[in-house]
Amino acid sequence: xxxxxxxxxxxxxxxAMGCMRLTDAKDSPERVIETAxxxxxxxxxxxxxxxxxxxxxxxxxWLAAHPSMRDRITIQTKCGIRSGCYDFSKAHILSAVxxxxxxxxxDYIDVLLLHRPDTLMEPQEVxxxxxxxxxxxxxxxxxxxxxxxxxIELLKTAVKQPLVANQLQFSIPESGLVTSGLNVNMKNDExxxxxxxxxxxxxxxxxxxxxxxxxxxxxxxxxxxxxxETYPALNETLDKFAQVYGVSPMxxxxxxxLRHPAKMQVVSGSVTPQRMREIADGAAVxxxxxxxxxxxxxxxxxxx
Length: 304
Ligand SMILES: NC(=O)c1ccc[n+]([C@@H]2O[C@H](COP(=O)([O-])OP(=O)(O)OC[C@H]3O[C@@H](n4cnc5c(N)ncnc54)[C@H](OP(=O)(O)O)[C@@H]3O)[C@@H](O)[C@H]2O)c1
Prior knowledge:
By secondary structure, this protein is of the alpha/beta class. The chain has helices spanning 29-38, 54-65, 90-104, 123-135, 149-156, 176-182, 198-205, 232-245, 249-258, 273-281, 289-298; strands spanning 3-6, 10-13, 15-18, 43-45, 74-79, 81-82, 85-86, 109-114, 139-145, 163-169, 208-212, 265-268. The protein has a single domain (3-223, 262-269), classed as TIM Barrel. It has eleven helices and twelve strands. Helix 2 (54-65) crosses helix 3. The two termini are 36 Å apart. The structure holds NADP nicotinamide-adenine-dinucleotide phosphate. Residues 18-21, 45, 145-146, 167, 212-216, 220, 223, 225-226, 250, 267-272, 275 line the site of NADP nicotinamide-adenine-dinucleotide phosphate. NADP nicotinamide-adenine-dinucleotide phosphate binds next to strand 12.
């Protein structure tokens, strides 16, 4: 499995297993987690809210049965979303981490992300929470999710730990991260920048982009691979490259994200072993520049 160095500091598998849908698995959670490990996936992405805490609990049960695995895997979780509001207060961050540690049945979290920007956030409070978590040995690395460059800069006025990752939505049809940059100076919808040049900023700062929902169109609108009605040209093109590279279309969709020189990590949400294997194959595919742009255009995007 190809590697990524999160924030230039933490080596991890280029494909991560997102655990948000662990409660939906038809196979046992143990089999799903062990399939990931067999494929060389050593990074597990959680959030305190996934499955109302149940996803962390299922993972924690597996970990409790396999304690020797703890230092061979990387566990990431997120905090900051509460029912009806976002909350980056010191008290909430500290209690959320304690809850995650308890459910995950571990003494430390490798990476803690702030899940979605809280406009009522006080950078100093976040800094105090991060300092307390780091000095207690409860969290090793910190990052953010769904944050703009200026929101990260605001945090950094007080937070002294490096932020190693920003988890953002990115897939072939949901490729705003690259599309706006390809349409600078054009008066069309694709030039609208929704993230404040996040991709370029994160590359400049050495913060790793983690692509969430890498196989979904829209915001959980459903997978695009195999949906020939909504994405006919894209599926035709994925099928073509799947044949060329001797892998599945899922592998090509993963390889498309991995091909970007930002060296993104793919946070895959599949909990079906056969599909997980197809996705992992994508880490071995090196798409050419021409392939990459052909797939992008097949999703309906124009190059000005
Ligand atoms: N930071 C954030 O705000 C945020 C938001 C959302 C998600 N996340 C993280 O990102 C991870 C991935 O998100 P996601 O689960 O939405 O991503 P995803 O990998 O794009 O989607 C996975 C889901 O799509 C299904 N699927 C994928 N390809 C399919 C196909 N060709 N045919 C049929 N079904 C297909 C999977 O089913 P099978 O299980 O059957 O394969 C699974 O239900 C989450 O687990 C979570 O860790 C973060």
